[in-house]
Design goal:
The chain is mostly helical. It has a domain of 91 residues. The chain is 30% helix and 3% strand. It has a two-stranded antiparallel ribbon. The chain is elongated. The relative contact order is 0.14.
């Protein structure tokens, strides 16, 4: 390699080192109690997307807490299961869809975590409530208005 190319590479490496030194340390990010094992730990976990009747009775289905209900876990363990985790990727880089038991565990942990903190904003499910009715039944489209329903 020529000496000019080596000097340019050296200049680039020095500038990269300077930028890395100025960047804030990712390890010093505030945590809500979760571990960093593939999970986002900045701020509280998100609200649950689905409420579960007895979230404390949901059992973990993997790892060292396999078979242990969420109600028996520490705040740190609960925060880990409630956290947003990195999706698992297949060999082509496409994310696998989440498994139903993973979604249930995550929502139960989020619901229990937010209940303990008093920050659950989702409406609690009503017990023995009738299913909600739609406002109006769907009306069949008339032959005259068929052109109005075309999206283009």
């Amino acid at each position: 390699m020529s000496e000019d190319i080596l000097k340019q590479i050296h200049i680039e490496l020095v500038s990269i080192r300077e930028l890395l030194a100025k960047a804030p340390a990712q390890a010093a990010a505030k945590s809500y109690g979760g571990s960093s094992g593939g999970a986002s730990t900045e701020g509280p976990p998100p609200q649950p997307t689905v409420l579960i009747d007895e979230p404390g009775d949901v059992q973990c289905h993997f790892g060292k807490n396999n078979g242990k209900p969420l109600s028996e876990m520490t705040e740190r363990q609960l925060a880990f299961y409630a956290s947003v985790k990195e999706p698992r990727l297949d060999s082509s880089g496409k994310a696998f869809p989440p498994r139903p038991q993973d979604v249930k565990l995550e929502n139960a942990a989020r619901q229990l975590w937010h209940r303990q903190k008093g920050s659950l904003t989702a409406k609690e499910p009503e017990r023995n409530a009738p299913p909600p009715r739609s406002a109006e039944p769907a009306k069949p489209a008339s032959q005259e208005n068929l052109d109005e329903d075309v999206p283009f």
